[in-house]
Amino acid sequence: MATEFVGKVISDRMQKSVLVAVDRLVKNKKYDRIIKRTSKLMAHDETSQCKVGDTVRVHSCRPLSKRKSFTVTQVLHRARVFDADAAAKAAAADAAAHQAGGLVGAPSFAASAITGH
């Protein structure tokens, strides 16, 4: 069994633990097709820095609990999060600028509403 996997965080509701979905490709011998299989690994996240949607690297370690025997070693990519309050404020500012005869173009909420962690 490999000691290192890369996957996406699908749950961060636990304290210091995350659930990571790891995809792999398996060949079906009978039908000669490639099938995608997903494994869910429980991983230890000491600082609770991982959020749902983050891409992380996990390594195997000694068993930490009944289901947890992996640790998060690196966050490779942060998930983009939609901020509804920032989008509403930016849309209101764009509407006010449009009525006042301001710049017409791409709305400013497109960049400010979606932020990374």
Automatic annotation (TrEMBL):
Single annotated GO MF: rRNA binding
SUPFAM superfamilies: Nucleic acid-binding proteins (SSF50249)
Residue ranges crossing the lipid bilayer per the database entry: none
Keywords: Ribonucleoprotein, Ribosomal protein, RNA-binding, rRNA-binding
Keyword Heme: no
Pfam families: Ribosomal_S17
This protein's GO CC annotations: mitochondrion; ribonucleoprotein complex; ribosome
UniProt key word Aminoacyl-tRNA synthetase: no
A biological process from GO: translation
UniProt similarity note: Belongs to the universal ribosomal protein uS17 family.
Its job: One of the primary rRNA binding proteins, it binds specifically to the 5'-end of 16S ribosomal RNA.
Protein name per UniProt: Small ribosomal subunit protein uS17c
